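_Backbone structure tokens_
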Amino acid sequence: MPPNRQNALLEEYQTCNGQVTRLDNLIWQTAAILFPITLAGFAFFGSSSQHTAEQFSVIVATAIGSSTLLATWYLLSIRWAVYERVAFYRMREIETELGLLHHHYSSFARMSSKRRKLALKQMKNDEKARFEKMGNDVGNMPLIGLRRTMTIITFIFIVGWIFLIIREFILTF
């Protein structure tokens, strides 16, 4: 491979890695703002001893606003996560061309044991031995990823607001 091509691929790899880091930070820095605000809303309204129609209206408006922000974060985060996956995909392509393995190993480690076995069947012997060794040394990863985590957190917070509205409705009316 010509040195110019190799340098261009390494630069692209570095760019992709920077994009992944930036997007991951964007997802969780945004969450670091939204989640504490939501928890503060739960604490404030959940500990309120005032149960009036006006208070109920404020809780409903706050719940709708908070749920909208959470849903927006969720949808944007899914979009950002897709961009991350594209960057990871490209990084694996570059690794293949340059003979590198980091993201290939990471992808393999994320697989369920059933998918690992299928992947190993398709590999050549020397490659198979490397991936088997890495898989044995690393072990199995829990099957929870970014998208599932984002879904669970968003769901829990929105359900929390629904329960708070129901509680306040029962105590008010």
Notes: The mean pLDDT is 94. The chain has one domain: 3-44+53-172. The helical segments are 3-46, 53-98, 102-110, 113-121, 125-138, 146-172. Residues 3-44+53-172 form one domain.
